[in-house]
Amino acid sequence: MKAILCKEFAPVSKLSWEEVPDPIAGPNEIVIDVKAAGLNYPDHLIVQGLYQFRPDLPFSPGHEGSGVVSSIGEGVSSTKVGDNVAFFKGFGAFAEKIVVHENFAFSIPPSFPHHVAAGVFMVYGTSLHALIQRANIGKDDEVLVLGAAGGVGLAAVDIAKAYGARVVAAVSTKEKAEVCARYGADDIIIYGKDKLDKEGQVALTEELKSKSKRGGYSIIYDPIGDCFSEPALRSIGWGGTYLVVGFAAGKIPSFPLNLMLLKGCAVSGVFIGRFQKEEPVANAQNLKTIGGLLAEGKINPFISKTVPMKDAVSSIEDIAKRKVLGKVVFVND
Ligand SMILES: NC(=O)c1ccc[n+]([C@@H]2O[C@H](COP(=O)([O-])OP(=O)(O)OC[C@H]3O[C@@H](n4cnc5c(N)ncnc54)[C@H](OP(=O)(O)O)[C@@H]3O)[C@@H](O)[C@H]2O)c1
Predict the structure, then answer these.
(1) Would the CB of 196 count as within 6 Å of ligand 1?
(2) Residues 245-249: what's their mean pLDDT?
(3) Contact at 8 Å (CB) between 169 and 180?
(4) What's the predicted TM-score (pTM) here?
């Protein structure tokens, strides 16, 4: 089989598309012929050795995908050869085949398009977990989403609207604002592409506060961090929940603790990989909920681009350059 291969921790341009041995299913594992794989922000970090863990070299990046089971190992009970499945794994999806533990694959209906299944579960799984388990979202909430036209951000907008909340979307450009408006955002803030100095942060705080109809947001969803987080926290309402999702803008910010005291708010961490391991039953229920919302047409994943798997490298570079809208998906012939 062929795969996108990382042979050294280096810039994305060093990745190659090469022949590698076919994977073999061990006990409780399945081999999947990958039809499509979703691009996620960590994919460009992991190949540079900048992610939370470093796989042994050589390896293929790619956290998630969708395909058809082509062989099963001893003891597999949840799936059989020929089943259509979506899967998660920390790496390995940007390839023609992948081996995963059966617990990290789940059936999808034969009619469900692989390119959609490949791009949904990481971002919607993360955002649903954040908004349900961490923030208990409901129709009376007012949600501020930063980086709202990116993968997890747009999923958060879509889910929050599906639960009837009011949503304010914050993004860097007009083009991204238009995507959020199409996804039902009730109001939009464009914070621009530059890092903010102290004055810029004060101005952003005021703008964020002015867009709230309830004297402060009850939920803030933050996948970008850096200089944007403190202005966002300063716009939270009494007793609100601030969701720490990621740091796509660069720096991991720190908050003055008095802000939490003054706002009576909670700052809550979101980590989908750990949640899947620690709370498999709740995670399975979340996946069912996502399947149900999809089937009812209440959520509508935005796959902005499908690209042949062998040409994945330039799109992996694009996500680092802030150029991706919604999701990009790589497909095998
Ligand atoms: N906690 C978890 O379990 C979990 C799960 C999945 C992802 N994440 C994290 O969430 C973050 C977003 O992931 P994603 O897949 O949604 O990525 P994405 O599609 O690339 O979206 C990230 C957004 O961040 C904003 N951004 C601001 N400054 C940026 C910069 N300097 N470079 C790149 N983007 C910048 C961009 O929006 P604007 O241009 O509008 O600012 C972009 O749309 C990442 O840090 C990722 O590691 C966390």
Answers:
(1) no
(2) 96
(3) yes
(4) 0.94
